[in-house]
TrEMBL record:
Stated family: Belongs to the PspA/Vipp/IM30 family.
The protein's name in its UniProt record: PspA/IM30 family protein
Entry-linked InterPro entries: PspA_VIPP1
Residue ranges of coiled coil: 26-142
Lineage: superkingdom: Bacteria
Species for this entry: Paenibacillus ginsengarvi
UniProt keyword annotations, A-Z: Coiled coil
Length: 230
C-alpha cells in the first residue's frame, strides 16, 4: 500500500544521505519523524477500516451460519410432524443461507488476511519509528557536538597567529616603556628632594657659620689690638 512506501524507502541510510544536503540536521530529523508519525496515523486508520470490514464479514458469516443450522433444525421438525412441504421450504432457505455463509466466509478470510498483514506492517512501522527516534537523538547529539567543535575551531583560528604575537610584543614594549618612564619620574623626584635637602641644610647651617666667623673676627681684632699696645 502507498502509505507504507515512504517508510520502506526512508531507511537510516537514506536519512543520512538527506542529512548531507540539509542545512539544519536537527530540523530535518524532526521533520522526518513528523512525516513518519503522519504515515503511522494513516496506517492506523487504514488498519482500523480493514478490521471493521473483517468484523462485518465475520458477523454476517456467523449470522448466515446460524440460519443454516436453524433451517436444518426446522426442516427436521417439520418433517417429524409430517409436513414435508414445509420441510422442503426450510431446506431451500437453508441452501440459500449456506450460499450466503460460504460467500461471507470467503470475504471474511480475505479481509482477515489483509487486516493481519496491515497489523504486521503497522507494527513494523512503529518499531522502525522507535529506531528512528533513537537514531535521531544520536544524530542530534553528534550534530550539536560537531557544531560546537566548529565554533571552537573558528574561535581558535585566529588564536596565536603572527598578528596576535606581534600585538603582544607591541604591548610588552609599551608596558616596558611605561615602567621606564615611571622609574625615571621616581628618580627625578628623588633628585629634586636631595637638592632641596642640601639647600635647606645650607640655610639652616648659615647662621652657625656666620656666628663662628664673627667670633674669629673678634679674636683676630683682639689679637691685633694687643700687638699695637706693645
Amino acid at each position: 500500500m502507498g502509505i507504507f512506501k515512504r517508510l520502506r524507502d526512508l531507511t537510516m541510510a537514506s536519512i543520512n544521505d538527506l542529512l548531507d544536503k540539509a542545512e539544519d540536521p536537527v530540523k530535518m530529523l524532526n521533520q522526518f519523524l513528523r512525516d513518519m508519525e503522519e504515515d503511522i496515523m494513516e496506517a492506523e486508520s487504514a488498519v482500523a477500516k480493514q478490521i471493521a470490514i473483517e468484523k462485518k464479514f465475520k458477523q454476517q458469516a456467523e449470522e448466515a451460519e446460524d440460519m443454516v443450522n436453524r433451517r436444518g433444525e426446522q426442516a427436521m421438525k417439520a418433517l417429524e410432524q409430517g409436513n414435508e412441504e414445509l420441510a422442503r421450504k426450510a431446506l431451500q432457505d437453508k441452501k440459500e443461507h449456506q450460499a450466503r455463509y460460504d460467500e461471507f466466509k470467503r470475504q471474511y478470510d480475505i479481509a482477515k488476511t489483509n487486516a493481519d498483514q496491515l497489523r504486521s506492517q503497522l507494527s513494523e512501522m512503529k518499531d522502525e519509528f522507535s529506531k528512528m527516534k533513537n537514531k535521531k537523538d544520536l544524530l542530534i547529539a553528534r550534530a550539536e557536538s560537531a557544531k560546537a567543535q566548529k565554533q571552537i575551531n573558528q574561535a581558535m583560528s585566529g588564536f596565536g597567529t603572527d598578528n596576535a604575537a606581534k600585538g603582544f610584543d607591541r604591548m610588552t614594549e609599551k608596558v616596558l616603556q611605561m615602567e621606564a618612564e615611571a622609574e625615571a619620574s621616581k628618580e627625578m623626584r628623588g633628585s629634586n628632594r636631595s637638592l632641596d635637602d642640601e639647600l635647606d641644610a645650607l640655610d639652616k647651617g648659615g647662621s652657625a657659620v656666620d656666628d663662628e666667623l664673627a667670633i674669629m673676627k673678634a679674636q683676630l681684632a683682639a689679637k691685633n689690638a694687643k700687638k699695637q699696645e706693645l
